[in-house]
Amino acid sequence: MEKQDTVNALYSLRKTPTQERSKATINAILSAAARVLLSIGYDKASTNKIAELAGVGIGSLYEYFPGKEAIFAEVRRREDQRLFDLTMNRPEPATLKELIQTHVSIYLEFVRSNLDLHAALINGVPQFAVGQQELPFYRDYVPWATKFLGAHASELRHVEHIEQVSSFITRATRSTIDNYVLHAPEQLNDPLIEELLTDLLQRFLLKT
Amino acid sequence: MEKQDTVNALYSLRKTPTQERSKATINAILSAAARVLLSIGYDKASTNKIAELAGVGIGSLYEYFPGKEAIFAEVRRREDQRLFDLTMNRPEPATLKELIQTHVSIYLEFVRSNLDLHAALINGVPQFAVGQQELPFYRDYVPWATKFLGAHASELRHVEHIEQVSSFITRATRSTIDNYVLHAPEQLNDPLIEELLTDLLQRFLLKT
DNA sequence: TTAATATACGAGTTATCGCTCGGTTATGAT
DNA sequence: ATCATAACCGAGCGATAACTCGTATATTAA
User: Fold this and answer.
1) pLDDT digit string, tens, across residues A37-85
2) Phi, psi (degrees; rounded to nearest 5) at A156
3) Measured CA distances, B184 to B21, B93, B187, B189 (Å)
4) Of the candidates A149, A20, A187, A117, which has an alpha carbon nearest to the alpha carbon of residue B138?
């Protein structure tokens, strides 16, 4: 409980902004953080540089963020949220087969749309409290996927452990794409990758 | 060419050791680096701390390594080499099905045997010259897998693009396991994960 | 034995880091 | 118009980082 709070304090906002201009300040900081990350990398990024590029006093930065990690944790959190919104704000496909195809496609388009930033986030930025608690992405996404799989249980090959299967395919999908983002970004434009990944998941999940 | 050398210089040994004691020094540094990584993380790890823990003068450290990145790049390189040796020094299975099962099993055992170090490497340590050139692991492994797939082409579902398929399954396997290492390490002891991953790959690759 | 080379060393220089704190300015409520 | 509070600011302190360079010691070759 206490330890948990201590940990969380390192990664969340210090105070919640109420006025508009403070929200603008926070946005400026996050935007600057992303630009600094792209130009010099996480290691050499410093709170001073971020504040300077954001056109914000260093004191202001520390009003809202306890440190560098928290800033980048927030950058990542917002990107994850964007992805989650993209996948949710969409007519729910009728069949599992379509769902798989759709989600692979959405995530691929998502990473392609801002490749450099995602590569930098994956590679350079350590993850929020790893092992301590689940990433927001999986925490939100897996239950949703589990529910969908449960609703189509009759089409599934693996009906025994739907919860674990749901987690498994979510992780496999995301991590495989992230691997391409980092190590073979040029192949992300090849439609073959999308085909292979879709086929991989469909064959695994669906009865033939 | 010149740029490439500049980049490489940041990540490779400065000089090749000839005498035994210098090899011992390098090993002490690498071992200390791993321990520092586990205790305080990549960010707060410094060359000074590593040298101190290694019982080596800071000057000696800089005789061999141009900086912190190079030290950890070498730690990772050696871990990758260990894994590669494990998979190669083993009677080659007769069938693709066995091969898949075997490799999933080897890699899982490999990460389980030193979970904390692998988690720290995956999460905290930025990758060597990402995008510039392929990681040694994939550079060595993919051609080998490609050859094996080619030799069993008759059993394959995807015979059109063996090279890309080989790369694809290698990345999918490694990145999925790495995801569990980082985000759900407790599940690595559940045999279900091994089953699911094996099944995923077999269904994708093999004709039924 | 001696010369050449490889290895080891660490005090010290320079730079930057994280972060605080006392104080100013802007905003909204009364 | 007045006041409370939210937001903003940046000089500057203490700590620590990366890395060099002159020097000392060990090893090997001649």
Assistant:
1) 999 999 999 999 999 999 999 999 999 999 999 999 999 999 999 999 9
2) -85, 145
3) 41, 30, 6, 10
4) A187
Is the confidence at residue A110, as pLDDT, over 60?
yes
For B175, the closest of A119, A178, A200 (CB atoms) is: A178
Q: What is the mean pLDDT of chain B?
A: 92
Does B208 sit within 8 Å of A208, measured CB to CB? Answer: yes
Are residues A26 and A64 in contact, defined by beta-carbon separation less than 8 angstroms?
yes
Of B180, B183, B204, the CB nearest to A135: B183
pLDDT at B2: 35
Q: Are B205 and B156 in contact (CB under 8 A)?
A: yes
Token readout for A58 is 């260093």
Query: Are A158 and B193 in contact (CB < 8 Å)?
Result: no
CA distance A112 to A106: 10
- What distance separates the 2 farthest-apart alpha carbons in chain B? 61
- Give the whole-number percent of chain B exceeding pLDDT 70: 93
A43 CB-to-strand D distance under 7 Å: no
Stated in angstroms, how far is A57 CA from D10 C1'? 7
Alpha carbons within 13 A on the beta-carbon side of A195: 10
Q: Which chain B residues are Cβ-neighbours of A203 within 8 angstroms?
A: 203-204
